[in-house]
Structures are given as C-alpha cells and as structure tokens.
Amino acid sequence: MSTNALITDLSKLLADTYALYLKTQNYHWHVKGPNFKTLHELFEDQYKSLAEAVDDVAERILTLGGQAPASFSQFNELSEISDGNSKADSNTMVRELAGDHTKLITRMKQILESAQKANDEGTVALLSERIAEHEKTHWMLSASQS
What we know:
The structure is a single chain. By secondary structure, the chain is mainly α. The protein has helices at residues 3-30, 36-63, 72-78, 90-117, 121-144. It has a single domain, classed as Ferritin (Up-down Bundle). It contains 5 helices and no strands. The longest helix has 28 residues, at 3-30. The radius of gyration is 15 Å and the shape is elongated.
C-alpha cells in the first residue's frame, strides 16, 4: 500500500476519532440516571483520551507528508460515527459508545495490516497503541451496561 493510501485511511480514522470525541463529550454533559457520577467521570476520562488520540493521528498524517483534515465539514464527510442523541438514556449512550469503539478497532486493524505491508513502523506503533486503548475502553463500557 502506498503512503498516500495510508494517509487517506488515517484521515478517515482521524475523522472517526474526532466524531467519537464529540459524541463522548456530548454524553458526558447529558448523561442522567442512577449511574450519573460514574458514567459522567468515565465519559470525561474517555473524551480526554480521545482528544490526545486526535492529535496523535493528525501528527502521524503530517509526518507522512499528508494534510490532516481539520474542519467539521471534512470530518463529517469522512466519518462513519453517528452523532449522539443528547436525550438518550444512559444505557443507550454506553451501548452506542461501545459499538463505536468496536468500529474504530476494526478500522485500525485494517490500517495496521496495510501499514505492516508497507513497513511503516511509525504507523504500526501508533495503531497498536490505539487499538489497545480502544479495546480497554470497549471493555470498560461493556462492563458498565446494566
């Protein structure tokens, strides 16, 4: 796979990561119910981690010589993560976020395979770290479902 193809895939990952960041922050602000405090704090930890991931993925795109998408319209065009419903109940929020992390894990594993074939160790290292983080987050969300 060419560097340009990796940049395209990483741009889609960046858009998905940013969309999940916004969705998680939305749910952090709007979660209600008996598990409010726990979920409010969990979502905060997760959106802060996603903010760092956005920066890491964008910087990798730039390192590879690409131009990172950086506008809402670009992110909206590239992302496959749906917007969050601020009025959803807490179980729906948790279930949706867990599913979104699964989507990102799947996308990253596909990009990882391409990066391995291209001998792009920097992208491999980034994706390996991100996959582990998303797997842990998925586990935490799944364990929080009632």
